[in-house]
Amino acid sequence: MDKLQIHGGIALEGEVRISGAKNATLPILAACLLADGPVIVSNVPHLQDVTTMIELLGRMGVSVTVDERMRVEVDASTIREYFAPYELVKTMRASILVLGPLLARFGEADVSLPGGCAIGARPVNIHVAGLQAMGADIHIENGYIKARASRLKGARIVLETVTVTGTENLMMAAALAEGQTVLENAAREPEVVDLALFLNAMGARIRGAGGDKIVIDGVERLHGTAYEVLPDRIETGTYLVAAAITGGHIRVKNTRPEHLDAVTGKLQEAGATIATGENWIEVDMHRRRPRAVDIRTAPYPAFPTDMQAQFAALNTVASGVGTIIETVFENRFMHMLEMRRMGAEIRLEGNTAIIKGVERLTAAPVMATDLRASASLILAALVAEGRTEIERIYHIDRGYEAIEEKFQALGAKIRRTPG
Ligand code: EPZ
Question: Taking all residues of the chain, what is their mean pLDDT, rounded to a whole number?
């Protein structure tokens, strides 16, 4: 398996262009199942998870073509089965996003239960309960969600926990249901908004996305369209922290500053100067050591759990003590154990990590455990003394497009070695 080798100690300088958002691309590709004509999705990031979703659609008989600029054309009219197999779903839990569209458009879906993952149990009970409230007949058999519905009916659904893909699955199902659906306690993430904009471009009637109450008036059919995916705010935040942790000065282009208020606010607390334009963010750390910050993750617009590991890395070399409280997932601290091997001083107490910054981390062989943890190990390696080797970087390839090229363009000494 490939590894990454990184020599630490270089302050990053220059510009980096952000790719399309993974967590908007995945539900949007699934939503193409709802259209009765071809759909063109552009600004799609070249990521393993996107390849997996394309393979899943292809397995069902959906026609998917990808051009050299990663514009994806999807035509669901050739679909021949409504089945998401365990062998694919176990590699990418977001495959659950085909459940709502299959049920709403074709009246049936057999989708493998995603199972847990490194960061938590990741149940899908809210997805299932919401579809049952819309009249679906669903039972779990041999690890599969077997769902049937002649026609889904609109319902008022209160989501017991704020769930991003739960909101997305139910919004897609409601788009073709009979009557009106109201989702209360809905997720407010920008990726949910992007999906709603995409569905409306296909003729859906969705109001309120971005707030915690979304109203969907079901329609008879959805037509094809062309749509450009929004930029990835987590990729953006990762490069902003990379500049801050190395004392550097970079500009992140092709992004949406308004989606990163919680993140840029914390970087300013850490001592960074932040400037923003319509589609760019500039961070300058003035070669200074960051100050420790306190983080508490929560659903958007609060501080994103997907940026927690990156700020843990920042705190390991910051001046002072920073605490990190993870409230979304129950086991998202594995990166802390790897950073300890690099000399970080971290104490874990349940869902709280207390990090006392040290002057320098030291290089050590470390192992990636999940997507965002992997990114945080790169950040730690960028400031560690010596050459750090990161194993199992397939986790990184799931969510960061051309990561070593983008870091090399910022001056980092990073290269991939075949494992
Ligand atoms: C989405 O996952 C993202 N993935 C995750 O990004 C992200 O970390 C997460 O939202 C939180 O922002 C995609 O969008 C593809 P949730 P999702 O349902 O939807 C509980 C990354 O790194 N819950 O919002 O699976 C759940 O256990 C990935 O790109 C239920 O209890 O997360 C968790 O505690 C990692 N029952 C909380 O809700 C359910 O039916 C939030 O999970 C569903 C969720």
Answer: 96
- Residue range 272-299, pLDDT digits in tens: 999 999 999 999 999 999 999 999 999 9
Looking at residue 96, its amino acid is I
What is the 308 CA–ligand 1 centroid distance (Å)? Answer: 14
Query: 5-16 burial, b if ≥16 CB within 10 A, otherwise e?
Result: bbbbebbbeeeb
Instruction: Write the DSSP assignment of 257-326 as a string of letters.
Output: GGG-HHHHHHHHHTT-EEEE-SSEEEEE-TTPPPBP--EEB-STTSB-GGGHHHHHHHHHTSBSEEEEE-
Q: Residue 294 is which amino acid?
A: D
Which atom of ligand 1 is least distant from the CA of 122? 27
Look at residue 67 in the predicted model and tell me its pLDDT: 94
Task: Please tell me the distance between residue 370's alpha carbon and the centre of ligand 1 in angstroms.
Answer: 14
Exposure of 344 in the CB half-sphere (CA atoms within 13 A)? 32
Atom number of ligand 1 nearest to Cα 97: 15
What's the pTM value of the predicted model, to 2 decimals? 0.98
> Residue 135 above 80 pLDDT?
yes
Give 315's Cβ-side CA count (13 Å radius).
Answer: 25
So what's the pLDDT on residue 369? 85
Return d(Cα 315, Cα 337) in angstroms, integer: 14
DSSP string for residues in 47-98: -HHHHHHHHHHHHTT-EEEE-TT--EEEEGGG----EE-HHHHTT-GGGGGG
Mean pLDDT throughout 331-339?
93
Pocket of ligand 1 (CB under 6 A): 22-23, 26, 94, 120, 122-127, 161, 163-166, 305-306, 328-329, 371-372, 399
Sign of CA dihedral 28, 30, 35, 39: positive
Closest atom of ligand 1 to 371 CA is 22
**288 CA distance to ligand 1 centroid (A)?**
35
The residues carrying an active-site annotation are 117
Structure tokens at 181: 């659906």
Protein residue whose Cα sits closest to atom 38 of ligand 1: 163
Give the Å distance between the CA of 119 and the centre of ligand 1.
10
The residue assigned the tokens 């996003």 is 97
